[in-house]
Amino acid sequence: MATSKRGNPGRAPGRGGAGALSVEALVGSALALADAEGLDALTVRRMAAEHGVTPMAMYHYFADKDALLGALAERLLSQVRLDDAGGSWEARLEAFFTSFLAVLRPHPEVAALVRTRILDGPAGLAVAEHVLGLLTAAGLDAEQTAEVGTYALSALVTLVTAAPGPPAATADRAGQVRRRRARLSALDPARFPHVIAAAEPLADCRDEDVYFDRGLALLLGGIRALPGSGTGQL
User: Fold this and answer.
1) Angle at CA 168, nearest 5°, toward 202 and 50?
2) In whole angstroms, what is the distance from residue 79 CA to residue 73 CA?
3) Phi-psi region of 230 (alpha: psi -120 to 50; beta: other; left: phi over 0)
4) For the HTH tetR-type domain, which residue ranges apply (predicted)?
5) What gap in Å lies between CA 81 and CA 64, rounded to an integer?
6) How many angstroms separate the CA atoms of 117 and 130, rounded?
7) How far apart are alpha carbons 170 and 37 in whole angstroms?
């Protein structure tokens, strides 16, 4: 995330607000815009218009759009709790995964940014260090912790981004769910009996807490089942 020393950001003609700009304020408004309208709506021009400044003024704070997206990922990662108050590695890992999910769940449109940017900034590096330390405590070596840590964080992001049903902010969400359910229910029962039977939960996530709890249980169960987990010996 690059900043510039070149002069003051420029106001758009007839509009104010540039003096109140900051990286924190811009990241906050970018997150709100992406939550409401998706990442495709998040452009330098749109952000400039939202804040009443010229597009060039945005480059005083971010070198390009990718730098802004990186700052969004860092904002989310900085909110993950990294408590290590003792207890078993399993309990500490579950607490970390739970916090990671709690941060991402309100932001399904932005969560995917986290997957490829965890090692790009200080907040993401702190998350990586924490999860690798917990997996080391589980008895895995450096290569295994890198692999399992990557699998685990990617799986948690996917739980959020691939949850059944349209995002909560989707226009005509109920209509989309209804049409998807009808399409699945109308499939050939001879070829797709199981899809038809699961049409309702495939069309929408009826209980998000149950959905995420099951996903978390599957992930933790898989880590527990790895050879050497919990023994400190491989």
Assistant:
1) 145
2) 10
3) left
4) 20-80
5) 29
6) 16
7) 8
